[in-house]
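Progress against Task 2.4 (sequence-to-structure conversion) is shown through the following example record, which the project officer requested during the mid-term review.
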Amino acid sequence: MANFESLINQEVQANSNGLLIVDENLNPQRLHSASGWQTLTNRFDQQQALLDKGWRCSLSDYHWPTDFNTDLVLFRISKEKAVVNHLINLAAEHLKPNARVILLGDKSEGIKSYAKNAQKRLNGDRSETKLGGESWRVELTVGQTSGAPLDDQHYPQLRDITQVGKYLLRSKPGVYGWKKIDSGSQQLVERLPHMLNRELPIGSERVLDLGCGSGYLTLATCSEASIITATDNNAAAIHATQATLADAHFKAEVCLSNAGEELASEYDLILCNPPFHSGFGINYDLTDRFSKNAARLLAAEGQACFVVNQHVQLKRIASSYFESVELDQDTGNFCTYLLTKPKR
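Structure tokens generated for the chain above:
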């Protein structure tokens, strides 16, 4: 795989103006900012890192920035097809004829198919350069008229996913596993009465849904009496959770954060299904971050309930932050844990 950050730095240096699209696949620490460039991201942690590096940065669920004009878009392709097609559609809608779109990615990630489809949408020229290995650089131009929109699965639109008790779970493309309830999260909800030694729903306690996704854990666990904070790093997830919990008439603060680092309150109960994928790769450091912040945010007598993939060594990781890390159930796919007595 090519060093895409290095390639982006070369493109930025060679062009005085442009819009760089950033998702979780890039490391902002390796990017060199330029005064004529702006970034667009849907990730809170990426925005903070980009701002620290001196970039202008717009954070949203991939809405085109209204205060920036350019004739060049640079995009290291995302993992999710709907996201890539949505962003190509945006470029077709907002760029003028003869503007350029540069895509970077690997053949195994679908770069060749995206290149062909993007050319049909932008209705201009296409050139492809092999960067070594499976990595490619694709440059496209915008034609005088646009082709038919690519299938982005109606990216901006929330839709009803399933009933959760008497409530309705809503989600959208851009949220991990958005079309269904995550199996690990479902296992955690099923095990919670045993782990907490009480029936659901939770009453008037302070509850933190750490990495909330579409809000399923809150919806399946809490009641209208619960005092809820739901947080995620992804702007699409925040949008979905806000809609889900508002429809359920839950009292909830829904906010962007980097694994809870920006939060300061103490919570009686923390629910967490921490991610271990970061873009096209696996990042077990995320488990450490979620565990560390859960210990910091949990009340002394509180309970943190985690579910992780069986291959994630949560007991080893979380024992640095909790006196007690108890395995509740190992199904062969997912493991549920009860974490108590946070180390101060």
